[in-house]
Structure formats: structure tokens, C-alpha cells
Amino acid sequence: AVVSTQSTGFGPELYLATAWCLFIFLVTQVGGYLILVASIRYGAFKLHPLILAFIQHIAVCDILMSFTCILPQIVSLIANGWALGPTLCYVNVYGPRIAFPAGLF
Q1: Type and span of the H or E element at 28
Q2: What Cα–Cα distance (Å) separates residue 29 from each residue in 53, 62, 87?
Q3: Residue 4 carries which DSSP code?
């Protein structure tokens, strides 16, 4: 008999998706913090202060989006279902839709 991995939700696709999300989370964290440390502590960017503030704002937004979107996705992939409660589910779904237009300005 052939056993389907689709019914249980386990299989190579789940592991690949989890590994991909972990990779994206780590790269986002390292990149965001690297930009912030290089620009604030070491003054590595010789740009107009307004442009520098814009770059720092994008780095902070990337870090926050990875914590509010990617990290809950990693937890739900590992738990094989949503395990963070209904409130965080609503925040995870509607938060980026509200925050993204604000981040454009």
C-alpha cells in the first residue's frame, strides 16, 4: 500500500519550507542588524542624514516583519498547525496589511 505524506502534513515539503523560512529569518536578522550597527555605531555610510534615516527605517521594518511574519510561520511549520492562539493569528494576518502602507512613507 502506498502511504501519502500529504494527509499527515509531514514530508520533505514541510522540512524544506521550514528550512527555507529559517534561512530567510536568519538572513533578515543578520542583514538588518548589520546595517543598523554599521550606520549607528561606526558611521560607515557617508550619506545625507535623511537618506541614512530612511535606510535605517527599512532595516528596522525588515527586522520587525521577520519577527511578526516569518517567526510565527516557522513555529506553525514546526508544530504542524497554528499553535500561537487566535489573537496572534489575527495580528499575523492583518498586521502586515496595516503596517506595509505606513512603511512606504
Answers
A1: helix 12-40
A2: 18, 8, 25
A3: P
pLDDT digits (tens, 9 = 90+) for 2-28: 443 444 556 788 889 999 999 999 999
* 12 vs 71: CA distance, rounded Å: 20
SS3 content of the chain, % helix, strand, coil (to 5): 75, 0, 25
| 52 vs 54: CA distance, rounded Å | 5
Length of the chain: 105
C-alpha cell at 43: 558611521
Q: Which three cell numbers stand for residue 16?
A: 524544506
pLDDT per position as a tens digit, 23-45: 999 999 999 999 999 998 888 88
% of residues, the chain, pLDDT over 70: 84
- Phi first, then psi, for residue 32 (nearest 5°) are -65, -50
Q: Could you tell me the end-to-end alpha-carbon distance of the chain, in angstroms, rounded to an integer?
A: 57
63-89 average pLDDT score: 88
The three grid cell numbers given for residue 94, joined into one nine-digit string: 492583518
